[in-house]
Amino acid sequence: MAATAQVPTAAIAATGLVGGYATARWTKKRPLGGVVLAAAGVVAARQWHARVGGGAAAGLAGLYVAAFAGSHPLAKKVGAWPSVFGVAGVVAVASWAVERNAG
């Protein structure tokens, strides 16, 4: 049986942060943005757990949540979109680095 290709976890996490914000902003429904953010976070966390184990997955999931929370005060200094793209980039690079060094 052929293995299924998975979307890179770094892309899932970054998309969750950017997509969650975009959904909330464009629909004007913050809870809907939260659903997007949470859904991507769950998918990313499951993949992190499978690829790098529970400890590293917990650390990356914590970073994901901290990035979401930290994007709010950062947005007051640099603007909303630069903040969201910045924290998404940090989470993506961390995810890539942890997964790369786990193997």
From TrEMBL:
Name assigned to this protein: Uncharacterized protein
Keywords carried by this UniProt record: Membrane, Transmembrane, Transmembrane helix
Taxonomic classification: Bacteria, Bacillati, Actinomycetota, Actinomycetes, Kitasatosporales
Chain ranges passing through the membrane: 6-24, 54-71, 78-98
Keyword Transmembrane helix assigned: yes
Record bears the keyword Transmembrane helix: yes
